[in-house]
Amino acid sequence: MSSINNTSRRNFLKIAGLGGTALYLGIFSSDSTASVINPLKLAEEAKSVELNAWVIIDTSGKVTLVDHRAEMGQGSFHSVPQILAEELEVGLNDINVIFGKGDKKYGNQVTGGSSTIRSNYKKFLKLTATAREMLIAAAATQWKVPHEECYAELGHVIHRNSGKKAHYGELVTAASKLEIPQNVKLKNRSDYKLIGKSLRRIDTLPKTNGKLIFGLDKRIPGMVYAAVERNPRFRGKVKSFDAAAALKVPGVKKVFKIKMLVFKTYREGVAVVADSTWAAFQGKKLLKVEWDDSGFEHINTADIYKKQLENVMNQEGLSFKEQGNPTSVIANSVKKLDLIYQTPYQSHYCMEPLNCIADFKDGKVEIWGPIQAPDWVQDALSEELKMPRENVIVNMTFLGGGFGRKAFMDYPHEAAVISREINSPVQVVWTREDDATQGPYRPGITYRCEGVVNNGKIEALKFRMSGQNNDHWRDPATKTSANRSTSEGFLKPYFDTVKNVSFAEVLFETPIPSMWWRSVYASTNGFAYESFMDEMAHEANKDPLDFRREYLDERIHKLIDKLEEVSGWKKRKKNEGFGVAITECFSSTVGHIVKVSKKNGGVKIDKVWAVMDCGWYVNPDIIRAQVEGSIVMGIGAAAFHEITFKDGITNQKNFYDYQMPRINDIPPIEVYIMENSEDAGGVGEPGLPPLAPALTNAIFDLTGKRIRKLPFNLAQI
């Protein structure tokens, strides 16, 4: 057994004491190597290991998966069991899934970057295949028959010649004492019975019948409720408040000033604690608060984009990547493209508003809620509350949407501070208006894209972006280097085929809190870079797909072939607008073709075709659902909503002024998945970035009008 660390006697006894009770499957935190844990071998070597038990098979034969990541609709709660059931040879519905608590032993628990499957699928396959072989070996030894005469099926080991059968629960004690086999052979994809199939999600029924517990559903004994009136301006403070009217609301118990962590700064507010959410909300409405908004900039949207434009027009910025000498080529070219693209601030607008339960007592704090990054919450609260990390206990519930927003530490910290003040467990619930006006947001960004086409070929590409860098909030030291996502969304093969290319970031900062939004910077970069690539194709007088094909590799050529086939790209007619965009992020490449037509003086989206190449994959139905959801979200961000600011206050408050696309705004969508043997890529995020540029490129194809600033109104083109 490899990678066993010397640890405390307490941990040694804890692991060794597991012998004979179950088969524990986990990873070693030292190198994230997947393995089966053999407690007796650990005891023999007088060593131990920090164990992350991902999968447990007990003596009743029950299989339990400890899901170390959040489930917020993306489907990992189903996809991981589908992987386990395949190599472990158990029924999918026989796997019990529970959420793991926040714990370093799990490694990175942040649900983001479309990383759950792509980062762990090989470990899960090896882990469960190893366990299966150990169970078969235990049965073969017990029956005194050759190992190769036995096989596993539906949670049992069966002897092929005699028909003898034993369920896993009867074998785990013996299996846990065996040597752990090395280099277990995995199934070929052609032999899969479950992986690659559109199996019904195991969480669909309990979600529709109300059985599953989301954050807002969670209750613990003795819990009270709180709402917080926060300064509508970023970084403002509480000067004074009058709670008299609020305290007269039946059920309101206490009103007091608090401050919560917002990255490396704090936001002040007034908390209203009551015996119901309704009473807390009513009390909050009656508060009279005087705010101190002096000493910092009051932001206006127009000023943001003016400054960003000045930045990209007058500064070279921090270089992210450069090859060749695009600056010189562009400067010495008579004919060149020099264009500006702008993308807006966006809110996450999860259907489940923010909420969190905290219980602070006896020097510890326990958290329950829709948490996207439990390990980060542990780190943040440990630091802020000055307590050991192990005294911060974080429990995940299901999330009603996340998109990056619920990987933030402000709302758990706020709940913990209120619980400490009142010495009672409390659930803090944000209203839609709270969520809309407090941020953090996807940052608005301005891009300057320069390029030269000569004799139909790209000679140089030069990109500069200016917008908030999300990393700066967490680590100010990053201000000395370019945004690490500066080229996110840009197809990597271009770097191999275009001789002169550069990407740079021109630093831009405001007090507006910003952070990740679905597909992170690819959602904004993709619009600029793929819109510009279309304009380069037009400059070269070439078909936009043919133009891209010249610079891309064989794998993407196959994706382009599929796009052309399913959309009828080569057969498009006059008066039909077709646009294409292809982007890459989180190890997956996605192409969209959008078809538009004229309608009542505006433009109507007729259809979207999407082709995803995510390599190895689990469940095509989940992939299609994620791409469809990404397209709907992309349509909203391109043509329906944005966050704007006036005098330091967010203008949009709720769905009436941050309008979402409705069902009749959504066109037919067809999603296709490429088949290959490449490593798994992400699924939850990469389907979004191509939508906006494919749509605006289609509008140009139909009308001759270029759209370089989002959002725009489809009815007024």
Write a structural description.
The protein has 717 residues and is an alpha+beta fold. The chain folds into 3 domains: 9-205, Aldehyde oxidase/xanthine dehydrogenase, molybdopterin binding domain (Aldehyde Oxidoreductase, domain 4, 2-Layer Sandwich); 215-295 and 354-429, Aldehyde oxidase/xanthine dehydrogenase, molybdopterin binding domain (Aldehyde Oxidoreductase, domain 4), CATH 3.30.365; 315-345 and 441-716, Aldehyde Oxidoreductase, domain 4 (2-Layer Sandwich), CATH 3.30.365.10. Helices cover 30% and strands 26% of the residues. It has 20 helices and 28 strands. The strands form 7 sheets. Strands 11-12-9-19-16-17-18 form a 7-stranded mixed beta sheet, with helices on both faces. The protein has a 5-stranded mixed beta sheet with strand order 2-1-3-4-5. The protein has a 5-stranded mixed beta sheet with strand order 14-22-21-20-15. Strand 7 (156-159) and strand 8 (165-167) form a beta hairpin. Helix 3 (76-88) packs parallel to helix 4 (116-143) and helix 4 (116-143) packs across helix 5 (168-175). The longest helix is centred in the first third of the chain and has 28 residues, at 116-143. This is Xanthine dehydrogenase family protein molybdopterin-binding subunit. It comes from Flavobacterium hungaricum.
Strand content: 25-35%
Strand order of the largest sheet: 11-12-9-19-16-17-18
Number of domains: 3
| Sheet having the most strands | 7 strands, mixed
Task: Give the class-level CATH name of the largest domain.
Answer: Alpha Beta
| Average predicted confidence as pLDDT | 91
The second-level CATH architecture of the largest domain is 2-Layer Sandwich
DSSP E strands, number: 28
Structural class given helices, strands, pairing?
alpha+beta
Global outline:
globular
User: What are the segments in which pLDDT stays under 50 over at least 5 consecutive residues?
Assistant: 1-20, 28-32, 37-52
The helix fraction, in percent, is 25-40%
Tally of DSSP helical segments: 20
CATH topology of the largest domain: Aldehyde Oxidoreductase, domain 4
Superfamily (CATH H level) name of the largest domain: Aldehyde oxidase/xanthine dehydrogenase, molybdopterin binding domain
- Give the termini separation: 66 Å
Pfam families: MoCoBD_1, MoCoBD_2
Organism: Flavobacterium hungaricum
Domain Aldehyde oxidase/xanthine dehydrogenase a/b hammerhead: 209-295
InterPro entries: Ald_Oxase/Xan_DH_a/b, AldOxase/xan_DH_MoCoBD1, AldOxase/xan_DH_MoCoBD2, AldOxase/xan_DH_Mopterin-bd_sf, N-heterocyclic_Hydroxylase, OxRdtase_Mopterin-bd_su_IorB, TAT_signal
